[in-house]
Amino acid sequence: xxxxxxxxxxxLTGFLGSGKTTLLxxxxxxxxxxxxxxIENEYGEVGIDQGLVINADEEVxxxxxxCICCTVRGDLIRVLGNLMKRxxxxxxxxxxxxxxxxxxxVAQTFFMDEEISxxxxxxGIVTLVDxxxxxxxxxxxxxxxxxxxxxxxxxxxxxDLVSDDALDNLESRLRDMNRMTRIIRAEKAEVxxxxxxxxxxxxxxxxxxxxxxxxEPEYPFEWSGVYELEPGKYELKLEEGPDPEMSLVAFANQGxxxxxxxxxxxxxxxxxxxxxxxxxxGNTIPYDEHISLKLQNKGSKSFILDVVKTSKVGLFTxxxxxxxxxxxxxxxxxxxxxxxxxxxxxxxxxxxxxxxxVGSIAIExxxxxxxxxxxxxxxxxxxxxxxxxxxxxxxxxxSGNPRRIVFQGVHMLFTAQPDKEWGNEPRRNQLVFIGRxxxxxxxxxxxxxxxx
Amino acid sequence: xxxxxxxxxxxxxxxxxxxxxxxxxxxxxWALKGKLFIVGDVVGGLYGFEGDTGKLIWKKDEAHSGGxxxxxIHPNGEIFATSGQDGIVxxxxxNNGEEIKAIKLxxxxxxxxxxxxxxxxxxVAFSKKVYVFNQDGNEQWGSEEHPSTVSAxxxxxxxxxxxxxxxxxxxxxxxxxxxxxxLEWQGSLVSMQLSPxxxxxxxxxxxxxxxxxxxxxxxxxxxxxxxxxxxxLSFDDSGMLLATSGSERxxxxxxxxxxxEGTMPGELCHHTEPISSLAFSNKGLLVASGxxxxxxxxxxxxxxxxGDPVGAAFAGDLVGxxxxxxxxxxxxxxxxxxxxxxxxxxxxTSSSSKGFK
Lengths: 452, 357
Prior knowledge:
heterodimer; A: Rossmann fold; Hypothetical Protein Yjia, Chain: A,domain 2; 3 domains; six-stranded mixed β-sheet; 24 strands; 25% helix; 32% strand; B: six-stranded antiparallel β-sheet
C-alpha cells in the first residue's frame, strides 16, 4: 500500500490546560468535509455527535527486552486495529494524549507494529503549549520538554495572557529545543485547521518544499559589511583580537537591501558549512569561499582584496569588525593610505549556548558521504544515544547514488529512503537531531568522518 | 486489493456457495450442527445463512451501535452471543436471530466473548474487567480490574477461565469464585490459546514472540524470531501441535516427545501476505489458513509440525475469519469486502475437470 492510501494520523499533545480540547472541538465542528475519528485519552469533553470519538485509557506497553524504542501504546494498537476495518468511513485520525503522555511510544507504535503501519501513517505531532505556564513546566517535568522536542508543530496558545517580549523569549527558547518545529501563536487555540492536519510532517519532501533549509537561521557569523569599491587592490587590516583566527566569506557583488543581505547570509551559511581554507597574512582573499584568516602573529595583519571592476564587496565575518578593529584600506601609488568605510553593516544572531537539556543539533555539509561509514556511524550513535535522541530528520547524499536519501526516525528506529534525483543541485547533507544532552561537536565530527 | 490472481478451488476444496454481507465481515461460525452459518460485519450486521445452500434465513441490522467486536456460538449451537462498542452483550437465538437477552455493561468496548466448554457460562471481557454470565444472562461472577485491557480469554475446563493482559495470564475458578493461578511475564500478550486439556498456555506477544507455560510443571519457554507479532494461534484437538503466525509464514510447534523446546518447528509457506486467520479442523491434523492476500489453504500436518497443502482456494480479499464445519466437510471464509464463501472439503475424484495439479 502506498503512503497515499494510508490513513493519516495526527497526534495532539500538550499539558493539561494547554487548550487541546478547545482545539479538538474546533477541528471537529469546523466545516472541512472530512470525517475524522478521534481517539481520546482524556475523558468526556468532546461530544459524540461531532464525529467518531473513542475513549481509551493510555496503555504503555514495554517489552521484555527492556528497549524503550520497542515500547508501544497498546490502546492505540487495539483501537486502530479495529478502526482499520472501517477505514472507508473516515479520512483522518486524531489521537489526543493526556498531558503526561510521552510522545515516544505513541510515535513508535506507527513504526513498530506492522499491522498498524500497513494501514496508517503518522502525519505529524502537534504540541500545544500554554504560553503563560510552559516556562515553569519545562523546568519541572521531562514530559513537557519531550512533548516540545517531538513536535512538528508547536501551537503557542494563550498568547493574550503574555507580553510580546515574554513571547519572543519563549519562542526562542522553544526554538532552541526543537529547531525543526513550526511555531504558531494562538489565542484560544484558534489556528487554521490546515496547520494541524495533513502536515505530512514525516514526509520530508513537504518540509523541504516549505523551507529549503529547514534549519532556522542561527548564523555562524556575527557581522557583515558591504563596501563600495572602485577597481584596484585593497588591504583588509586587522588588529589583535579575541581569537587567533577568524572565518570569513567575501562576495564581489553584495546588495545593500535587507533582502539582499539575507540572500548573502543564506549563501554564506552554505559556504560556512564547507571546510575553511586557511589564509596567511599577505595573501589575496578569494571570493565565494569559506576562508580562515590566520591571525596568530603579533600586531596588525593585512590581507589583499582584489577588485576587478567597480563592485559592492560584502564581507561576512565570524566576529564583528569592531573586535579586530577591522578596516578596508586603499593604498595609492604614493603610499597614501585611505580608509574606505562600509556603506552598510549588519549584525547577525550568532550560534549560542543552549540552556535546556533538550535541544537540536543540525549538521549541514556539502559533498557526498560514504554509505558504509555513515551506516556504521549512525548505527553506533543510535545504539549508544538512541534513548536520548527523540527525533531525527534529514537528507544525505550517498556517493554514486543519483537520488537523495531521506532519513527520519524516532529514537533508535529510523528509515532511509531514496527520494528525488539530485539533478544539477549541489550535493549536500542536512541532518537534524533533537534530543537530550547531545554533544554537537562530537556528532559533527563523527559525521565529517563519513564525508568523502 | 490482493496482488495475487484469482484462482479456482484446488485439491480438496470444491465450489460450495457464496453470499455477501453489507460490510467488512469480521466474525463467523457454524451453528445448529452445521445447518446454519452465522456472519457478523464490522458495523453490527448479523446474518444467518442456510449451511448447505447459503440462502439467507435471517438478518439483523446494527446489533451494536458503533460496531460489532465479538461473537461466540454456544457449544449446543442453539444460541449465540455478540458484543460491541456500545458496551452491550446480546444473547440471541440461532434459529431466527431474535434477541433473548441484552446485558448492558456500561460505556466501553466489549472485545471478547467465550462460552465455557460445557456451555454453562458466558465469559465477557469488558475493558479491564471480566464478567461471567449464565445462559440466561444473569451475572455469576466479576473480576477485579486487570492491570491493562484484557486482550484474550479462554476456558481451561468447564469452571476455569483464563484471561490474558499486559504482563499476565490469570486463571479464575468461577464456581468457587477464586483466583487459581497467576503466570507473570513482562510483555504485551496479544493472543492466547490453551491446549484442549488446559495444561499448556500459549500467548503471542507484541515483541514478536510466543510465550508458553505448562501449568502441571510450572515450566515456561519463549519462542522468538517471529517477523511480526503472532496474533494467530491454534491448537489441534489432541493438543500436540500449535500453529502460530505473525507473518505470511505459519510456524508449527510440536509438543510430542520433549518438544517443542529445542526442536525445529514445522514451517508452512503458502501465502504471499501475512496470515489473517488460522484454524485447526475439529478433528485431526488439518490446519486452514487465510491471508491478507485473499488465499485460503488447508495443510495436512505430520507429528513434527511439517506438512503439505491438500487444497487451496481464493476468497477474493483479506480473509477476516475462517471456520471448519463441525463435520470438517466444509470450510467457510469471510473477507474484508463482505464476501462469504463456503467450500466443500473432500477428496477430489479423478472425474473432476479441475484436478489438482
